[in-house]
Amino acid sequence: MPNRVYLDWNATTPLRPEARAAMVAAFDLVGNPSSVHAEGRESRRLVEEARATLAVAVGAQPRNVVFTSAGTEANALALSPGLRGPSGAPVERLLVSAVEHASVLAGGRFPADKIGLIQVTRSGVVDLDHLKALLKDGSPALVSIMAANNETGALQPVTEAARIVHEAVGLLHVDAIQALGKMPFDINTVGADLATFSAHKIGGPKGVGAMVMSEGIGGLEPVLRGGGQELNRRAGTENVAGIAAFGAAVKAALQALPEDVKHMASLRDRLENGLREVPGTTVFAKDVARLPNTVLFTALGLKAETAVIGFDLEGIAVSSGSACSSGKVQPSHVLAAMGYDPAVAQGAVRLSLGWSTEPADINRALEAWRKLGNTLLKG
């Protein structure tokens, strides 16, 4: 679409040229990666090269990388009762932060009566004291805390959480889907036992994800059974073209990371300052460390659905929150967990930037917001 401005990068990103090239090249391969003939081995080579690329990028061993159909499946695979760490004690319950993605809040394969919610602060950051209290009251737990929130961009204290969880003989899963490509992320530095990723958040194709484990994690039961693919951890013929493109996107994203972070943070700050020029505008989680590209805001009396449509009519793509709820604008569960009134949560609009966002895009977004503010907030 000509003359459009795309500010919904947290929902999905444009395909990087490197990923597109890798995908097109892989489409020409005929072999099944599980076949032993030359054609199969060539497809297998692409899968294993991508596996090694992602492993190096996040500090894991290639044998501990499992490719999936998406981040949602990766989260479902990670949230598995019976997982064991170095202590050998299997996890019997799940604790998730109240601001997690819907695929984590669903609890994976844990029964509903074995799932607990960790409270967050008014700024949307996990309450570590509440986590400590929950860990003391019960059997070993798998704890799931995202690295960065997909709506507010708030960074979570995952390294501190890892220490607390491990002292309680538990395991930590980190949904790093929004973090990869926007901040450094290494499972060893963080202390994550399991982490999950998605290709289309970093310039790869939609429909490819990965679950990564640290050394010494056992007891993982596959969600999909029926074949020996992915070292018996996920049955089904691998998406060779998608996985090859995922690897290419990871490589490109990490190479450009320092420059991209600086670029996005500068534009984000400029965007926020301009948004607040409309009286009554509030930016959520602005007092804590956030992703360099994310702004969640509202204004008194604003309705998110009306605002998103208004931006769209001005040629600008924005979101009301998680893309997984698109088509049915609802109050944000993230803002509800942060203690905001439903009337406020119903007005939250998310603008998220990327590596190719330009100053002119920010100017157009601010022009649209001034126009919408004067129209939608009258009276």
Automatic annotation (TrEMBL):
<dbReference type="InterPro" id="IPR015421">
    <property type="entry name" value="PyrdxlP-dep_Trfase_major"/>
</dbReference>
<dbReference type="InterPro" id="IPR000192">
    <property type="entry name" value="Aminotrans_V_dom"/>
</dbReference>
<keyword id="KW-0408">Iron</keyword>
<keyword id="KW-0411">Iron-sulfur</keyword>
<comment type="function">
    <text>Catalyzes the removal of elemental sulfur atoms from cysteine to produce alanine. Seems to participate in the biosynthesis of the nitrogenase metalloclusters by providing the inorganic sulfur required for the Fe-S core formation.</text>
</comment>
<dbReference type="InterPro" id="IPR015422">
    <property type="entry name" value="PyrdxlP-dep_Trfase_small"/>
</dbReference>
<dbReference type="InterPro" id="IPR015424">
    <property type="entry name" value="PyrdxlP-dep_Trfase"/>
</dbReference>
<comment type="similarity">
    <text>Belongs to the class-V pyridoxal-phosphate-dependent aminotransferase family. NifS/IscS subfamily.</text>
</comment>
<keyword id="KW-0808">Transferase</keyword>
<feature type="domain" description="Aminotransferase class V">
    <location>
        <begin position="5"/>
        <end position="364"/>
    </location>
</feature>
<keyword id="KW-0479">Metal-binding</keyword>
<dbReference type="Pfam" id="PF00266">
    <property type="entry name" value="Aminotran_5"/>
</dbReference>
<protein>
    <recommendedName>
        <fullName>Cysteine desulfurase</fullName>
    </recommendedName>
</protein>
<dbReference type="InterPro" id="IPR016454">
    <property type="entry name" value="Cysteine_dSase"/>
</dbReference>
<dbReference type="GO" id="GO:0031071">
    <property type="term" value="F:cysteine desulfurase activity"/>
</dbReference>
<keyword id="KW-0663">Pyridoxal phosphate</keyword>
